[in-house]
Structure formats: C-alpha cells, structure tokens
Amino acid sequence: MKKLLSTFSILTLLLPICDKTKAEDYKYFKTNASIINNVPTVKLYGLSSFGNETLLNTWESSRTGITMFNSSLEDVIVDQYEGKMYFEANEANETEIYEGVLEYDMINNTITKVETTGNVDLSNYSLYPEVIKQIIRKDDSTGVISISENSFKLQETETEMKLWATDSNGRIAPINITNGTKLLINGRDVEQSINNVGALSAALTGLPTVPTETTLACGLGTGTHGGDLAFSGGCASKINEQLSVNYAASMTMPGQDYAGDFEDTFSARAGFVWKLGKTIKPTQISIKEGKELREEISTLKKNNQNIISQNKVLLARLEKLEKIAFSKNNSKDLTTYKLK
User: Fold this and answer.
1) Which residues contact 22 (CB under 8 A, 6 or more apart)?
2) Torsion 261-262-267-268 (CA) sign
3) Nearest-angstrom CA–CA distance, 85 and 80
4) Residue 101, pLDDT score
5) Does residue 319 sit in helix, strand or coil?
6) Is residue 3 very low, low, confident or very high in pLDDT (cuts 50, 70, 90)?
C-alpha cells in the first residue's frame, strides 16, 4: 500500500473536469486528505482558476481508531459517460488495512467509498477502451464534438444544441434512423405523426363544404396515408343564398404506439362560404328542377295534343262548309256573280 501517514495532506495533480459535470464553473479538481479528530477525511475542491478554489464536498470515514490514511488524485481515472471519477482511499489501524476507492459523482456532487481487496493501483485500470477516447473529439476553438470518422456532430450554443453529420470527406451527410428504431419528439413518433396528419387531412376532404338542393348536408369520410387510417364527420349549412357554413372533425385509429395525447390524434375545421358579386344561374339544373321541367313539358305535350285534336275538328268542319258552298254555287236557282 502506498504512503501510509498518520496525518496526510496533499494538493493533488490538477484534473480536467469532464463535460457531463453540473459544476460548469470549475475546470479542475483537487483534494485535501487528512485525519481530523481521528476521522479520515477528504475534502474535494473545484477550481475555476489557479488559486481560486471552492469546496464541493467532504467525505468522512465511518471507521474509528484509524491511525494511518492515504488518498489522492495521483492515479485518478474518469468515466466521461457517467460523469464520475475514482481515486484511492486507504485506511489502516495497528492491525488491519482497509483499501478502497472513492467514487465522486460530478453530476450529483456525491462521494461514496467502494471497498476493495488487495493492493489497488488505479493506474492499471481503464473504464473504457482507448479507442473510444480516440473517436470522440472536441474542437476547443468551436466547441464542436465529433463522434467517429464519419462524424456525428454536436455543438452547444447559448440558445440551442446543434446536431448534424458529415462523411469521411467532411461533406454534410444525412442522418438515417434505421433498423426499426423510432424517432420520438416529446414522446411522439415523428413518422407516425406525419402519416396521421395525411390521413386526417384526407378524411376531412370527403365531407361537404356547401350544401346543394337543401339547407343542411352532413356526411362521414375516411382517409389513409402511409398505412395509418382516420375517420371524419361533419356538416354544411346554408344560411341564405350568399352564405354557407361548414364544420367537421377527424380522428385517427386509437391504440397507436407513441401517438401522443388526444389532441395529437384529433383534427377539426370550421369555415364559411360567402358568395360575392352578382348571382349567376348555373347552366346545370338540379334533380328537382329537372323533375319540374319534365312535368311542364308533359303538360305542354298534353295541351298541344288537345289543340291538335281541336284543329282537326275545325279543319273537318271547314271542309264540310266548303263542300256546301261549292254545291250551292252550282245550283241553277242561284245567280253567280264574279267579283272584279
């Protein structure tokens, strides 16, 4: 075991803090280890600049009778993904040695001790392969974090987090969510949401907007897009010759995964049609108007047939009168005068 001292105090190597820590004001850490009132104690400080340090947390051993204590950041290792760092903390009394590792959680600012067996040399351990360190890079001048050779890019600004991708030649590349993985925004499946909007809109188009031949028309509709199905219902009402109103709503099928709340699966519309300008009679006639026109034509035909029949009777009577007139002109008792 390294350096066992009755009273131990050390200012450690300065350690760069990982990106996940909440202590964003502190770029470095250092520790001060000692036995205070017979209790092994470690004080952990954050440094925003050299000589400007703030006490972050204090760890105290639960053991009594400790005569020798050793802890430092000399062999510290950092887990950048969990936001934790580990360093030795060895305690001893006259008969026993208690070796262990202090775990400092930089996100929650907590210190706990993990007991170990045997002589621990943290310099022989790594929390993740060296290759991971190599593929994750950060440009200090721009703050851009690159992951892998075909880089996935992240950049944090004062107002937003930017995300994009480039290929091995540095050209902008698409980000393709594959293998059945769903892309969610606020718990909603983005692809399904697009399909739902298409289905909801298609369902609404099947409903009446202006009633014809009546003052009120209602209907039901359905629509589909990308395999998602929606149903709709609505009515259109004719207020007068110039103004009509319509209102409708549509809803997707229930039971969809990651569909969001009710308002995410429901769509509604309302509107009005106001005729402006001079009313123009349509060239096409309605069924009702056609029926009335046929009835009028039928009546006219009957009247014409009656007139034709009457005309035939009149013609027959005229013919009879002509015959009588000719027969009397040929009579010897009558004198015929020629009109000049």
Assistant:
1) 106, 107, 108, 109
2) negative
3) 8
4) 85
5) helix
6) very low
d(CA 327, CA 332): 11
Whether 40 contacts 66, CB under 8 Å: yes
CB 148 within 8 A of CB 100: no
Tokens of 59: 């760890």
Classify 316 as helix, strand or coil: helix
Residue 84 · residue 104 · CB < 8 Å:
yes
* pTM for this predicted structure: 0.45
Tens-digit pLDDT profile for residues 268-324: 999 999 888 777 666 666 677 777 888 888 888 777 777 777 777 777 777 777 777
| Residue 224, phi then psi, degrees to nearest 5 | -140, 150
Ordered DSSP codes for 217-281: EEEEEEEEETTEEEEEEEEEEE-SSSEEEEEEEEEEPS--TT--SGGGSEEEEEEEEE--S----
- Give the torsion through C-alpha atoms of 314, 320, 322, 324, to 10 deg: -150
CA dist 185 and 175 (Å) reads 16
Q: What is the 3-state secondary structure (H, E, C) of 17-51?
A: CCCCCCCCCCCEEEEEEEEECCEEEEEEEEEEECC
